[in-house]
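Aim 2, interim progress. The first record below pairs a target sequence with its C-alpha cells.
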Amino acid sequence: MTSLTSTSVEGQRPPRSWNWVGILPFLLFSSAFLLGPAIILLVRSLQANEGGWTLGNYRQLIDPQVLEAYGLSVRISIVTAVVGGVFGFLLAWAIIYGGLPRVFRSLLTTFSGVASNFAGVPLAAAFIFTLGRIGMITALFGFFGIDLYDSDFSLYNFWGLTVVYMFFQFPLMVLTITPALEGLKKEWKEASENLGATSWQYWRHVALPVLMPSILGTIILLFGNAFGAHATAYALTGGTLRLATILIGAQISGDVLQNQGLGYAVAMGMVLIMGLSIGLYTILQRRAERWLA
C-alpha cells in the first residue's frame, strides 16, 4: 500500500504554471521593435551599395568625420547627463527633504513628468521663440541694451544645444532618483544622530554611499537619453552640428554623398554603446536594490 502511494505521488506532475503568459506581450513587443530592427541594422550594415557583403562600412567608422560625430554626441551626452544629474538630484532632495509645501512638491513632480517627455521639434521651436536671435527673452534683454549674441552665446552651437537638452534631462533625473531618496530609512538617520553625527556627516558617510549606485545609474540613463536624441538637435541646428544621429540620417536619406551601409554601421555602433549603457545601469540598479529594497 505504501509503495503504491509513493509511486502515485512520484508520478504526479507539478501543476502547470501560466505565469509566463503575462510577459508574452512584452516579449512580442521587444522582438518586433527592438530585436527585429537590430537584426535588420546588422544585416544592412554588412551590405555594400553595389550589392554583396562587405566589412567596408565598419572600416569607415574610423573616418575622421565619423569619429567627430561620435565624439560630439558623447561629449554633449556626458555634459548634460552630469549637469542634469546633479541639478536634478538637488531638486529631488529639495522636494523630499527640503520642507517644501505639499502643493509646491506636487507642481514640481507634475512639471518633471511633463518636461521629461517634452522633446523633439516642439521643444526646439519653444527655445527658438524664447532664446533665438529674435526670441522673447533675447528681445527683452535687447530692450535694456544687452545683446546676448554679442558674446559667445548661441542657441545653435554646442552649449546652446546643451541648454536645450537640459530641459528634459534634469526632470528625468528628478523622476528617477526620487524613489531612491524616499527609500532611505529613517532608522539610519536616527542611529547616526544618536551616535553624535551631524546632518552633513550623515549624508556624507551614510546616505550618499547608499544612493551612489542609484545616482550613477540614473546619470548613465541620462547619457543614453541624450545620446539617442535626434529630432531636437536637427530641428534646432538644421544639421550644422554633426551628431551621430544626424550623420545617420544624412547617410541613409540624404541627397549628397549618400551611403546607406555606412549609416547602418554608425547606427550599429550606437546600438552597442546604448547596450553597454543599459548593462551598466542594470548592474548599478541591482546594487542599489540591496539597500533600498
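The second target in this work package is listed in the same format:
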Amino acid sequence: MSLIAFGVNHKTAPVDVRERIAFGPDRVQEALKDLIDARGAREAAIVSTCNRTEIYTHSECVVDALVEWLATSHRMSPESLRPYVYAHTDESAIRHLMRVACGLDSMVLGEPQILGQIKDAFTLAQDANALGPILGRLFQNTFAVAKQVRTDTQIGASPVSVAFAAVSLARQIFGSLEEKTALLIGAGETIELCARHLQSAGLTKVIVANRSIERA
C-alpha cells in the first residue's frame, strides 16, 4: 500500500491536455467513487484547477494503472496521456502536496488561490467519503504547514495571483484600461478574479467566451 500523487500541470502539459482531463466539481464525487470501488483505492482526493489536475490516493494500484484510469475516464488513450504525467510516491508525494499548497509549484510563485482550491478538494473528498486516516491527516498537516509558511516567510507578503499578474501586464502594455474592452476565455475561478481586477483597473466592458452559456 502506497501513498501516490500523480497528474499533470502547467509545466508538463499544454492547455488542451489540461482541459481534457480536468474534473468539474460535479464530476469529482463520481470519479472518487469509481477510483475507490472499481480501482481498489483505499482513499482518494482530486485537485483540479486550470493549471493542474492531480490525484492523491492511498492505494495498492501501480501508477501505470492509475494513469490508465485517468485517461479512460476522459476518453483519452493512456498512450497519449502518459508523456505529460508525473508521479510521486510516499515521502515524495507528501513533499509535493506541501509544495503545491504553499504556492511553490504555481505558475506565479506564492499565489494564494491554490491553498483554497486544495481545501475545496479536501471538502469534496470528505463529502464523497473518500478520505481515511492517511489522506485526512496528510491534508490537515499540509494546511498547517502552508499557514505556517505564509506566517513565517515573505512568500505571502505581496500576494500575486495569475489573474493579477495578467492585468498588471495589460496595464504595462496598454497603459490605462479605462474605456477598453477585454475578452476573457473561460469562466473559472481565475477568470472571475481577473474580471474583478479589470473592473478595479477601470475597464468597463468585458466579453466572456465559454463553452456553456450557463457558466458564462
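Residues 162-209 form one domain. This observation will shape the mutagenesis plan for the next reporting period.
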